[in-house]
């Protein structure tokens, strides 16, 4: 039985239809009620049991008493005046807060979700990890980030990126459950091809995911072209050598046919020289892949400096000259605390009551 972390009641928004059927039968109800309940949870995105009008009052009461309906509470919304990106802070039932981002592109609407409250991976430039890991998120808490944002904006979510706070491979089972649920036609029916999961490189989990093939795009946080530099930026590099990480990515490509996306955050004076661009090209040569360059978003607790747009362009040109596909990530919502975990962190140190909507520039 899938339970919540805080009160250990059945977490019904995290359950597969078959699991709901079992629960409903144990309640002495007819099996078809499970499908009605599933639709309330995932198609109509109910926030309360009271709304579930085609279920009897007796069943709604029983569900309310014996199960948990996980619903996220939006506590803050920041809207970028530069590009319309919106950042949301949600409060979880146990008081933890997490952040998610809404972005509108020509090719559709994207939501970037968090997979953990906090993170224990310790990447040096990342704000999500500064206070370590609070806890994993349940599948329902990942789904709810999408459902609530879609309800608030009134728009459909076309793409999902698991690139918010947390390391999805460190919360593997819940993330796989989330992927199963979000792609079901009976739920949101988001196409697997429109989902990207980003990892700092937990090798056994990448291989496991390749074998299970959930059909999503894998993004690998590379950030350096040699083990020594990578170790200075990412503690996980001490556990897994680059050669092992890359062969796990090759295995993912072999098994799934999906091109790997390599993320490379450009940090001034650390990994941004022409020599590094050459090293990176040599490392990835012959691989069907894509490099996503991200000028590092400075975090005030850390000393790292970012690179200029021009410098990033030069780095990109060098990769392209060597036959490596590369783009520079558009910096979305920079005016609203763009980098992972920054908004959550500032909210935690300056906790406010109620729901707040802030247009940047009016702050
Ligand atoms: N744990 C996952 C998801 C992290 S966030 C992972 O490591 O891939 C998504 C990407 O943003 C990762 O590549 C991460 O390294 C990068 N990132 C985090 N903080 C950043 C910052 N301040 N500037 C630039 N990139 C950052």
Provide structural commentary.
- The protein is of the alpha/beta class and 363 residues long.
- Helix content is 33%, strand content 19%.
- The protein contains eleven helices and 13 strands.
- Strands 12-11-10-9-8-7-4-3-2-1-13 form an eleven-stranded mixed sheet, sandwiched between helices.
- The longest helix is centred in the middle third of the chain and has 15 residues, at 139-153.
- It starts with 16 loop residues before the first helix and ends with a strand.
- The site of S-adenosyl-L-homocysteine has 18 residues, from β8 and β10.
Characterize this entry briefly.
The chain is α/β, with parallel strands linked by helices and 363 residues long.
Show the helix and strand layout.
Elements: H1 17-26, H2 32-42, H3 57-66, E1 73-79, E2 86-91, E3 97-105, E4 108-112, E5 116-118, E6 133-136, H4 139-153, E7 159-162, H5 172-182, E8 195-199, H6 203-212, E9 217-221, H7 227-233, H8 242-256, E10 260-266, H9 274-284, E11 289-295, H10 309-321, E12 326-328, H11 342-349, E13 356-359
Parallel strand pairs: 1-13, 4-7, 7-8, 8-9, 9-10, 10-11, 11-12
Antiparallel strand pairs: 1-2, 2-3, 3-4, 5-6
Helix pairs in contact: 1-2, 4-5, 6-8, 9-10
This protein binds S-adenosyl-L-homocysteine.
């Amino acid at each position: 039985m899938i339970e919540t972390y805080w009160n250990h009641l059945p977490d019904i928004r995290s359950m597969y239809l078959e699991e709901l059927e079992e629960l409903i039968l144990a309640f002495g109800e007819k099996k078809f009620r499970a499908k009605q309940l599933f639709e309330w949870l995932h198609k109509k995105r109910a926030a309360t049991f009271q709304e579930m009008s085609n279920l009897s009052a007796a069943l709604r009461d029983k569900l309310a008493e014996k199960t948990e309906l996980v619903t996220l509470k939006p506590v803050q919304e920041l809207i970028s005046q530069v590009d319309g990106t919106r950042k949301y802070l949600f409060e979880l039932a146990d008081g933890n807060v997490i952040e998610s981002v809404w972005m509108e592109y020509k090719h559709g609407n994207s939501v970037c979700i968090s997979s953990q409250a906090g993170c224990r991976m310790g990447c040096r430039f990342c704000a999500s990890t500064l206070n370590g890991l609070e806890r994993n998120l349940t599948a329902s808490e990942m789904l709810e980030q999408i459902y609530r944002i879609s309800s608030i904006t009134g728009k459909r979510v076309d793409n999902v990126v698991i690139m918010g706070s947390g390391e999805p491979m460190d919360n593997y089972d819940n993330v796989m459950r989330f992927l199963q649920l979000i792609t079901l036609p009976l739920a949101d029916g988001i196409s697997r091809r429109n989902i990207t999961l980003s990892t700092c490189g937990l090798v056994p989990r990448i291989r496991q995911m390749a074998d299970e093939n959930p059909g999503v795009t894998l993004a690998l946080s590379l950030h350096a072209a040699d083990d020594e530099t990578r170790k200075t930026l990412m503690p996980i590099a001490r556990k897994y050598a680059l050669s092992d990480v890359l062969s796990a990515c090759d295995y993912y490509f072999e098994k799934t046919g999906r091109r790997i996306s390599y993320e490379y955050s450009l940090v001034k004076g650390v990994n941004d020289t022409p020599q590094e661009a050459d090293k990176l090209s040599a490392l990835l040569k012959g691989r069907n892949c894509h490099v996503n360059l991200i000028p590092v978003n400075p975090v005030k607790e850390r000393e790292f400096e970012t690179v200029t747009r021009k410098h990033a362009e030069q780095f990109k040109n060098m990769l392209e000259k060597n036959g490596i596909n590369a783009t520079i990530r558009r910096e979305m919502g920079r005016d609203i605390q763009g980098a992972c975990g920054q908004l959550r962190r500032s909210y935690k140190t300056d906790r406010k009551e109620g729901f707040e909507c802030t247009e940047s520039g009016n702050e």
